[in-house]
Design brief:
Blueprint lengths: L1 H17 L10 E4 L7 E2 L3 E8 L2 E2 L12 E8 L17 E3 L6 E4 L4 E10 L15 E5 L1
The structure holds copper (II) ion.
Length: 141
């Protein structure tokens, strides 16, 4: 009896330890559902955002869900990485999906473009650790 109670408490701590606030676990990832590196596409096109091991909520969510979920950002032809300890800027290279959208219609000029997802928290800051998708390059015909 006593032994099983100790085991239950140890299990509880190990579960709590792997789900820290604003800290996606090692199994969490964001990815492109319908595009892969090297694809050739025609514009306009749809981009579908995938997420596993973490949730999606609108930006500004103030309830508990903010600890285990965020919202997508699409980095388009972004030079290098955005700063990870401040809000992701709003500009043509950083598109925010504040309503919790999981897809977008994009219009890009012909040529090569890089696309990468980055998850942000309720104040648009990247989570810690940051959830980046692999950066892919697509060619618009
Ligand atoms: Cu944002």
């Amino acid at each position: 009896m006593k032994k099983s109670r100790i085991l239950a408490i140890a299990l509880l701590f190990s579960v709590v330890g792997t789900t820290q606030a604003h800290s996606p676990g090692e199994d969490a990832r964001v990815y492109f559902k319908n595009l892969k590196d090297g694809d050739t596409i025609t514009s306009p096109f749809t981009v579908e955002f995938g997420i596993e091991g973490y949730g999606i909520v609108p930006a500004g969510t103030k309830d508990k869900r903010r600890h285990t979920a965020g919202h997508h950002h699409l980095l388009v032809d972004h030079p290098g990485n955005p700063a990870l300890d401040e809000p992701i800027p709003h500009n043509n290279n950083c598109l925010h999906f504040d309503q919790g959208e999981t897809r977008a219609e994009l219009k890009l000029p012909p040529g090569k473009h890089t696309l990468q997802l980055l998850l942000g928290d309720e104040t648009h800051e990247p989570t810690d650790p940051p959830l980046f998708s692999p950066k892919i390059t697509v060619t618009v015909k």
